[in-house]
Amino acid sequence: MDAELFPRSRVEVAPGAVHVPEWLTPSQRRGLLDACRAWARPPAGLRTVRTPGGGTMTARQVCLGRHWYPYGYASTVVDGDGSPVKPFPGWLGDLGRRAVADALGPDAAADAPYDIALINFYDARARMGMHRDSDERSGAPVVSFSLGDTCVFRFGTPESRSRPCTDVELRDGDLFVFGGPSRFAYHGVPRVRPGTAPPERGLTGRLNITLRVSGFAAD
Q: One MF term from GO for this chain (predicted)?
């Protein structure tokens, strides 16, 4: 990405929803990408998600901690190879809590530990329709890290998947956190901008790592 005249600033997109550009350090980005590549390998690796209506999501996904499928969670990849879901690492939860504290303040950091990650890979044609993250039993903030290509991230309201909404450009290393009154807001990715990843990332496409607190009792 070429240098900009004015650096991008932190923005509160909606109450409880904050975009922090380039929050991840270069070393954190490299480490997170290496980890994502390991998690994407089978068993319980990157998969195409099939919807109840018979369609497929264009973004492919791998899960940590608990396996998400439309519309619930399981301890195994019930809609894939049936393997146990990969464990959620403690260091990723620590990173998530630091992100929440930086974006929303120390009082917003969840008491319960982050225990779920959904990692979505977007190629040039992938999209994500407007949806809410509502399959958890916790209202703790959702943490989103971006790696690779830039995307347009559309953020709406808890009441409607249509207008009003705000489009935010998420780039490599950006953080987006939404909690409080925006925790169950509709959001989606209408497009990815191919070829915008920093050359040093060595990634064609976009990775989005979202962290959540399940609120479920331990198995």
A: broad specificity oxidative DNA demethylase activity
Q: Specify the pTM.
A: 0.95
In a domain, 93, yes or no: yes
Please, which residues bridge with residue 116 across strands? 212
- Residue at 1 is within a domain: no
Specify the residue for token string 């807001």: 185
pLDDT at 2: 53
CA pair distance 216, 96, nearest whole angstrom: 18
* Number of structural domains the chain divides into: 1
Helix (H/G/I), strand (E/B), else coil: 13: strand
User: Binding residue per annotation — 79?
Assistant: no
Mean pLDDT by 10 residues, the chain (219 residues): 78 98 98 98 97 93 97 96 98 97 91 93 97 96 98 96 94 98 98 97 97 90
Domain that holds residue 201: 11-212
Q: Is 19 annotated as ligand-binding?
A: no
Q: What is the dihedral of CA 141, 183, 60, 170, to 10 degrees?
A: -80
CATH for 28: 2.60.120.590
The Cα–Cα gap between 187 and 161 comes to: 8
